[in-house]
Amino acid sequence: MLKVFNTLSRKKEDFVPIKDRLVSMYSCGPTVYSFAHIGNLRTYVFMDLIRRVLKYDGYKIKGVLNITDVGHLLHDSDDGEDKMAKASREEKKAPLEIAEFYTKVFFEDLQKLNIGKPEILAKATDHIKEMIDYVQALEAVGVAYETSDGIYFDIAKFPDYGKLSGINLEEQMAGARVEVNSEKHNPSDFALWKKAEPEHIMQWPSPWGMGYPGWHIECSAMSQKYLGKSFDIHSGGVDHIPIHHENEIAQNEALTGQKSVNYWLHGEFMLVDGGKMSKSLGNTYTISQLEQRGYAPLDFRFFCLNAHYRKKLNFTFEGMDAAKISRERLSLSLYQHKLSATKTSAEILEKYRTQFDDAVNDDLNIPLALGVLFTMAKEPRSVDIYTLALTFDKIFGLSLDRLSPPEQPKQDIPAEIADLVSARMQAKKEKDYSKADELRKLIASKGYTVLDTKDGFIVNKID
Ligand code: AMP
Ligand code: ZN
Q1: Which atom of ligand 1 is nearest to the CA of 277?
Q2: Residue 249 CA: which ligand is closest?
Q3: From atom 2 of ligand 1, which residue's Cα is the shortest distance away?
Q4: Fewer CB within a 10 Å sphere, N or C end of the chain?
């Protein structure tokens, strides 16, 4: 039986979907005004793991992922510059061109990471009418009000406000910043629709004049359209718990009067060198940047699988090196199993299968499941081990069916690279790991990877 940690109840719960074998699931998607960074991508690996575990357990899924191409504001409070508008100004391109470009790159990244696309991909700009209808419906039930700059949700009319994050509104109000919009009834009231200044780039006609939707209404309008008033799972990163998801609940439940999402699943953040990832610190890496440094995208997926989704994961290049080496060793070992015609007893296989199933069904304990695979790989060589590893790979998504032979075909390594490789080996012998790392990076910048193995190293040309 699958158990998941539900943010709403703060407990691990048995997973029981509304419809017997069909799971309805909504995941907050990217705002397509720049490249997704590795932190964002950790959250989509997490989404993918939920989907893979459900499929492994025999469920069908109706999954929705939204693409925010309207551009929401730079701050969660309803002010600041529109992100799409900013990118559009900086890149001198029309907002929709920006959105199209980054959406394409986003899906390429997902593909590189073996992240399956949800069944429904919903672009915000295709659902403006649904959002306007939703705001009107909220007005009709008396929880929205108009100010000179937009339509706002009146949180005082929704007594359950705060139930997901457990925030105490009174405390929050007492500590609230100086309110910029004095027409709001309550500092935490949030915009459902904003009236646009004439120069605002993305705007649509509405009953309230030209304007654009608030961010939260986008997810409510699209999830309810495709999944109905109540659905099974909503996923996203932990940063969305206190505002975005709280506001989605308020909108949905004020309108329908029923519980909108049964299981809220949130993935923890990725840190870089123990701290926050931010553009100004220059540590928001993309998948392409990792590739340029000689890592395969699946090394990054493997790196993510080694931490439980509810734990913070600290990204370092040492960690990536370890992931790369560990994945390579696993691949070599499984390849050797693949070549062996020997059989493994049914009891041994069953033991691993049970351990694996228990791990993945215990709130997606993928690190533990990986441990089972590593232990299993140490069994005497047998094709049965390889076959069972492929079954496990339905969840890991590491392309274990595409293992390359352990005996690398001879390649011509240029003398310059060979010298750098020997210098690196020497540095390692002298335990000068920072020099060794520098040399590895230099080798990567010249188009080669060097991979440590038990018996030495392998040098490869990057394709
Ligand atoms: P955004 O495009 O900013 O809405 O982010 C897309 C997704 O990435 C959201 O689900 C965020 O919660 C998630 N996210 C943003 N930063 C990080 C991070 N450092 N680690 C993990 N997930 C993140
Ligand atoms: Zn959302």
Answers
A1: 19
A2: 2
A3: 30
A4: C
Q: Which residues line ligand 1 (CB under 6 A)?
A: 28, 30-31, 39-40, 42-43, 236-237, 239-240, 269-270, 277
33, 43, 70, 247: residue to mutate for ligand 1 pocket, most atoms within 8 A of CB: 43
- Fold held by 3-267: Rossmann fold (3.40.50)
Q: Which ligand gives the minimal distance to the CA of 261?
A: 2
| Closest atom, ligand 1, to C-alpha of 43 | 22
Q: Which residues, by Cβ under 5 Å, contact ligand 2, an ion?
A: 28, 219
Please report the pLDDT score of residue 390 as a whole number: 97
pLDDT at 76: 46
Tell me what pLDDT residue 181 has. 65
The residues of the chain that CATH labels 3.40.50.620 are 3-267
Cα 297 to Cα 304: distance, rounded to the nearest angstrom: 11
- Whole-number pLDDT of residue 395: 98
Q: Where in the sequence of the chain do the CATH 1.10.730.10 domains occur?
A: 276-402
Query: Per CATH, is 276-402 categorized as 3.40.1280.10?
Result: no
Average pLDDT for runs of 10 along the chain of length 463 = 97 97 97 93 98 98 95 53 75 84 97 98 97 98 96 95 83 54 87 90 94 94 98 97 96 97 98 85 91 96 98 97 94 92 96 98 98 97 97 97 64 81 86 90 89 71 76
